[in-house]
């Protein structure tokens, strides 16, 4: 039975290979049917015995005589090609005439497709190199056209700039193929002999997806890669040290922990806790030197390093550096080729700009240079916009790449229910009472307790409760805002117009897909409680809903993503056929996600998205929108809905996002017009000189009106 099934799978592979070979080369491979081993037992063994006996004994046992004759010879295969298939077909036809259902689905085959012994032997040898990189549980699409010309010219430029600049920031907009550019740059540099191994540090949620990108786009069999989110630390460390593993993709956090372990072995006698503390507090230069030595001692050599979603590793003024950022900065500081990739390079202020420059060029932007940088660029960011763009242009390739997808935005106002209005007034009353009451008084504590979830104070002694309330009271406005957010977002669905709006949007897209089914969509919320409430209500209304939060492992996140996106069905026909195929393969039509789902994941099957609430940065808004607005989005347009009330708390969030958006877009605009050299400079200087001369000559002893007219004409001509 095993040999038979194996032969049938070989036939499926040969048929698929022949189809793709013909498409890629324009030459068709000759195929022919071949008998599978034990074919008769394969077919007969799957038939109900009672029904089989009735069919074989019909017509005076003619079919039974043929069956017994073939069965005796089947073990040695001593029969003419097609005899088994002919008998099986006659049995099936007889059963059909007798109205005996033998199989729930299609009957089993006794033949497979063959491309000939010689070609299949070559295919087996090639497959032995390809197979280790493929996971049968995660099928990948075979890409037909890998050309980076035409609409993909900016991806091609990114590859070339990495080769020339060596260390740079790649800041294309979301969904525009940054991962593919980084992978392409490595394979191109490897082909030229400039690099040997590449390390790709990615968010844990997209590690498996990143491995899938390598499978889809890299020449099969040429590179070995590692991208397994389920691997333990010993397996990861073995992959780092394996010189024959050319590409390794691991999560930011896994690399941080593994480098901490290596440092502990090299410097702290195996004490990882001591190593972790030292990494956070030691001078940067000393950390870099120690980490480089520890990594070298373990034999972990990577001359090409890439950090995906690099905004997660940023440091900024007023916030202690994280151990993760310290480790990644130290390991990438001396890499000959280094790429930090993100669609949103800056989230908050110009201190992050300096940190980003320091990561790319630590030799030009040392730690002690920040104060001078802040004085120059930090006081009025808008006024310094062009100066900042000019400064970063040699090190950042920033571009809002057109994905070809049109986004339709709609802001949907939400009114408060009566229950929410009462709760909202209660929060404001408690806040005002706490402000009026003396510090440390019971009156103030009880007012603060009304703004705090009851579970936060459960099980505390009177003394511990008082201390906790006093601590909370030191951030009174923040406590008020969190209480307001819970009223707006965490009220149960029956009294929550916000959740009802989400349901309305989902219902608006019901039965509206190309094939008449549910249009797939995404809902994003900040808190786990909001995610739970939304998902529960959508499920109650009959929608197929999946949930992605930070509580899932990287492996489980990828399973949820594939359960929604159904990658293997992409390009399976026209839009109606693709919609139907992917819906059949998918488990979910709606994904409800927290911030963990908002970065890096390819969810382009979606065509509508709801911002249930607003995050605190424009970066997160852009990242959320990029889950569906991507280069491989097959549909030409997507809808984006933003829900919000007119409560002051939410107005402040909207204003804050807009202020941060201005800084973020400074580093997303093209810098081609900032050229200060060559012809551009000569033209600008010539234009300024002509304008100056014309202004000087236009001033004379003529009537004022005539002077003005002539001067205006001279200035117009000079300005051209």
In short:
Helix content is 52%, strand content 10%.
N-C termini distance:
83 Å
Strand content: 5-15%
Question: What's the mean pLDDT score?
Answer: 84
Number of strands: 15
Query: Which ranges are low-confidence, i.e. pLDDT below 50, for 5 or more consecutive residues?
Result: 700-704
Strand order of the largest sheet: 5-6-4-7-8-3-9
Rounded to the nearest angstrom, the radius of gyration is 33 Å
Give the proportion of residues in helices. 40-55%
Which structural class do you get from the secondary structure elements? alpha/beta
Please tell me what the overall shape is: globular
Largest sheet: 7 strands, parallel
Count of separate DSSP helical elements: 28
Written description of the protein model:
The protein is globular, with a radius of gyration of 33 Å. Helix 2 packs antiparallel against helix 3, helix 12 packs across helix 13 and helix 18 crosses helix 19. The strands form three sheets. A seven-stranded parallel β-sheet has the order 5-6-4-7-8-3-9, sandwiched between helices. A six-stranded parallel β-sheet has the order 10-15-14-11-13-12, with helices on both faces. A two-stranded antiparallel ribbon has the order 1-2. About 1% of the residues have low confidence. The longest helix is centred in the first third of the chain and has 26 residues. Strand 5, helix 9 and strand 6 form a beta-alpha-beta unit. Helix content is 52%, strand content 10%. The protein has 28 helices and 15 strands. It has 720 residues and is an alpha/beta fold.
């Amino acid at each position: 039975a095993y040999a038979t099934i194996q032969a049938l799978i070989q036939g499926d592979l040969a048929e698929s290979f022949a189809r793709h070979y013909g498409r890629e080369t324009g030459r068709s491979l000759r195929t022919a049917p071949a008998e599978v081993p034990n074919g008769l037992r394969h077919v007969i063994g799957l038939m109900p015995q009672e029904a089989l006996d009735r069919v074989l004994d019909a017509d005076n046992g003619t079919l039974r005589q043929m069956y017994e004759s073939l069965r005796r010879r089947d073990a040695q295969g001593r029969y003419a090609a097609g005899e088994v298939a002919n008998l099986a077909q006659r049995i099936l036809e007889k059963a059909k005439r007798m109205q005996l259902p033998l199989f729930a689905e299609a009957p089993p085959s006794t033949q497979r497709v063959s491309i000939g012994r010689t070609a299949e032997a070559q295919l087996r040898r090639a497959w032995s190199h390809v197979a280790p990189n493929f996971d049968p549980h995660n099928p990948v699409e075979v890409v037909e056209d890998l050309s980076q010309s035409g609409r993909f010219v900016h991806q091609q430029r990114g590859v070339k700039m990495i080769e020339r600049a060596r260390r740079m920031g790649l800041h294309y907009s979301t969904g525009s193929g940054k991962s593919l550019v980084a992978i392409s740059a490595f394979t191109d540099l490897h082909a030229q002999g400039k690099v040997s191994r590449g390390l790709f540090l990615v968010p844990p949620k997209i590690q498996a997806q990143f491995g899938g990108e390598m499978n889809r786009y890299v020449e099969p069999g040429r590179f070995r890669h590692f991208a397994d989110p389920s691997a333990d630390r010993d397996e990861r460390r073995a992959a780092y040290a394996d010189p024959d593993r050319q590409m390794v993709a691991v999560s930011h956090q896994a690399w941080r922990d593994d480098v901490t372990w290596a440092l502990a072995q090299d410097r702290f006698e195996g004490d990882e806790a001591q190593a972790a503390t030292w990494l956070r507090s030691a001078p940067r230069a000393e950390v870099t030197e120690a980490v480089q030595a520890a990594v070298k001692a373990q034999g972990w050599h990577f001359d090409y390093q890439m950090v995906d979603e690099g905004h997660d590793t940023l440091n900024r003024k007023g916030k202690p550096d994280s151990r993760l950022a310290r480790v990644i900065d130290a390991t990438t500081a001396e890499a000959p080729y280094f790429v930090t990739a993100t669609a949103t390079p800056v989230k908050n202020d110009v201190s992050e700009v300096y940190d980003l420059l320091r990561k790319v060029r630590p030799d030009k932007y040392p730690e002690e240079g920040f104060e001078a940088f802040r004085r120059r660029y930090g006081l009025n960011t808008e006024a310094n916009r062009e100066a900042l763009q000019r400064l970063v242009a040699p090190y950042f390739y920033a571009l809002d790449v057109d994905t070809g997808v049109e986004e339709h935005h709609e802001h949907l106002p939400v009114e408060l229910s009566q229950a929410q209005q009462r709760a909202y007034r209660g929060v404001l009353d408690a806040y005002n009472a706490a402000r009026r009451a003396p510090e440390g008084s019971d009156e103030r504590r009880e007012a603060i307790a009304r703004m705090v979830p009851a579970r936060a104070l459960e099980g505390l002694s009177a003394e511990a409760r008082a201390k906790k309330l006093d601590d909370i009271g030191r951030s009174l406005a923040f406590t008020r805002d969190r209480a307001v957010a819970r009223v707006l977002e965490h009220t149960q669905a029956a009294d929550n117009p916000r959740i009802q709006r989400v349901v309305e949007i989902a219902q608006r897209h019901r039965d509206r897909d190309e094939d008449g089914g549910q249009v797939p969509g995404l809902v994003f919320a900040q808190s786990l409680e909001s995610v739970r409430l939304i998902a529960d209500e959508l499920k109650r209304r009959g929608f197929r809903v999946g949930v992605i939060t930070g509580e899932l492992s990287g492996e489980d996140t990828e399973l949820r993503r594939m359960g929604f996106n159904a990658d293997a069905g992409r390009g399976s026909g026209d839009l109606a056929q693709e919609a139907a195929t992917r819906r059949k393969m998918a488990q979910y039509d709606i994904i409800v996600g927290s911030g963990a789902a908002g970065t890096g994941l390819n969810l382009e099957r979606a065509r509508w998205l709801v911002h249930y609430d607003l995050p605190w940065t424009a970066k997160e808004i852009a990242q959320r929108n990029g889950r569906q607005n991507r280069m491989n989005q097959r549909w030409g347009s997507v809808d984006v809905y933003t829900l919000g009330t007119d409560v002051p708390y939410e107005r402040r969030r909207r204003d804050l996002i807009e202020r941060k958006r201005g800084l973020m877009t400074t580093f997303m605009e093209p810098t081609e017009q900032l050229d200060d050299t060559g012809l551009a400079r000569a033209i600008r200087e010539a234009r300024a000189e002509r304008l100056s001369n014309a202004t000087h000559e236009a001033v004379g002893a003529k009537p004022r009106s005539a002077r003005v007219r002539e001067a205006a004409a001279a200035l117009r001509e000079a300005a051209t």
